[in-house]
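agent: user wants the full assembly modeled, not chains individually. Plan: 1) parse entity lines 2) check alphabet per entity 3) run joint structure prediction 4) return tokens. Steps 1-2 passed, three entities, 733 residues total. Proceeding.
--- entities ---
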Amino acid sequence: MLDSFILGLSSGSTCLFTCGMVIFPYLMAGTAGTRKIITDLSLFLLTRFLVYFILATLAFYFGKVIFTSPVFRNYISGILYMLFSGMLIWYAISRSRKPDCPAKIVETVHNRKLVPVFLGVVNSLGFCPALMLILTKSATEGTIVQSYLAFLGFFAGTALYFIPVPLAGKIRRKKVFETIGVMATGIAGIIFMIKGLTSLIGGIIYG
Amino acid sequence: MTAGLIWALCCLIVMIMLYFALGGLSEGFAKLPFMKLNPNTNGGELAQQVVMDNCTLMIRKPVFDGLLRERNKGFVQIEWKGDLPGKINDTIDYNMDSSPDFVIGIIVPENQVNLVALNPKVRDVGISTSTSYGWAARINIDK
Amino acid sequence: MDEAIKNLTMRKSFGKSMLYTLPMFLLTFILMTGGRPDFSDRSGTIALLTTFLGLNILYFLMHYTGKTDKLRAILFIVFALTLSFTLIKNTIDIRQTMTYSQGDILECNMPFCHLVIPMLILPAAFTQSIIYPGSILGGFASISAMVVLWLAASVILGRGFCSWGCFYGGWDDGFSRFRKKPAIRKISDSWKWMPFAVLLMVALTSALALTPTYCDWMCPFKAVTEFEEVTGIESAAKAGIFISLFGGFVVVLPVLTKKRTQCSYLCPLGAINTLSNKVSPFIVKIDKQICNDCYKCVQACPMFALTNDDVKKGSVSIFCTKCGKCIDACPKQAIHYGIVGVPANRMVKFSRNIFLFVSFLFIAIFASGSIITVVKSFVNLFI
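--- prediction returned ---
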């Protein structure tokens, strides 16, 4: 759960600064006060939580079908960790990285009441490398509770950034925070790369 | 401007005094409430002590300390101090409920450790290592 | 104009330089001898006097030549080398190896260094305890003494600690001086925020795991102090990481870029010290009336603390470590040490004198112990 939380926390800041600018105006547009913002935000976070819950369940059972032996699990999870963490690192260092958010699709939704739910679904299903890493972790966990905990940690790490939504407009030096967030994501990628490497080597040596 | 100059002169004085006062300042700093080692670091408080033929067995309190609250997984640290026999085989009751929790066997020269869990909360051996005073082991346990 | 520049030169006459060195001479003597000089041990006496004279000659030359950086760097690099030598010697004397075992960690007798500090803050706040397996007070490099020294130096010198106090900085400072011209020039300015990302990650991981993760996994200076015994895949991975980071950030990149890349891109304590620059009364100032925008200072800065924009604005960024390299590189003497609140070009000499005294005194006494140890070891080889 610890590494999932760290991954969520590191990639969450990037998520906030890329998607935040799309999500916040929709969450706050036309609202009369803090109560409405809190309601919308809660709905948004609850949707993300539910989507993650479903993803954790699916990943676990999918993992059970695929990873039939522990050695195979070590190999595959090692390779997947390395692949997705490599993508995460690439995302952090790539100059062509565009601050685009999948939630931009929200423009097609006309029912304003559904916007927070829709944003929650799109935001949590934005298949970024960080989410792929958590899916891999969740798929290779021993019990379904551990699988849920992995997603719970990831959810908690990313959700922390969305809590001060009403203050988002007041943050100065957004670019600096975004830069630090992207770099932290890269470091998280390196952590998972090492995890993948040790898992793979462990599979080879002790397999 | 004056405030900056006064601050700079204060810093000058503090720097001159720093090394003279370092001993006292360090002692004062060490007395602050947070200046004590975390149980995860030092193994926790001593709970039981069993004097044996050549060495003393020390069992520390189980450690579950986390950042904000206790964790579900922790460890218990046990130490043997003194002249160790070639083979150690001790039955440990770490929670002091008068029923043994695990049996630990160590072949000291070969650095081999064997754990037999008698309590379902006992998981595995975390660390088993020689120390300057003898031997120490951390046994991973559930709460 | 030339007359104005001449007036700004920091050079002093021989007599004046001697006069300025006198307080340092007395203070270093008292502090290095503990006020009670003991000359009974021959090699110890030779080591003490050599170190004492060497330090004071450097300080004298700073006043006499008006230059700072090269003379500072000599002491800074010697400090890094001798401290590593002392630490390795101590470790080998005690354990007969440069490695430490799980047993050493369980016994909580690991020497403490200031790089651990960022990892202690959150656990200390939340658990009211220290997560480093070292000695709280007493013994070699106790947690309490090191934190007090770092705290005082950081408040007084700000990020100047990174160029006047850190006993690791001398390594990449030294390697950054190997080439005359950098092989890599274009580096994105945003990388200088990297230590903050490292700080964020190590502070969080350490707080959640309640172990100092930077020391465990990342610290490149384990290559020149002590490192975990390789007993399995995890410890082998750790060894691979610290060797790669040392090779990359402390040796190769500084040589290629002529910048202190470990300090600029990796060190989490550097991030905290960057913030402490806001507290320190000493800063580096640019006099825009004299500056001709030649940007030699930007090229010279080893810490990415100066950009062309900074020079245009006439202010040095918070990443400055006050090493003095830009000051020495400026052909117009437009950059100088200053004091917060005092306008650029006012009290220039006074500001430099007071900053040099404070910073040099700190490093001289901090470094003297390890320098004496090393000199004594060498003297013992011949006597």
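agent: reporting back. The helical segments of chain A are 2-28, 34-66, 70-93, 115-124, 129-140, 144-162, 174-206. Chain A has one domain: 2-206.
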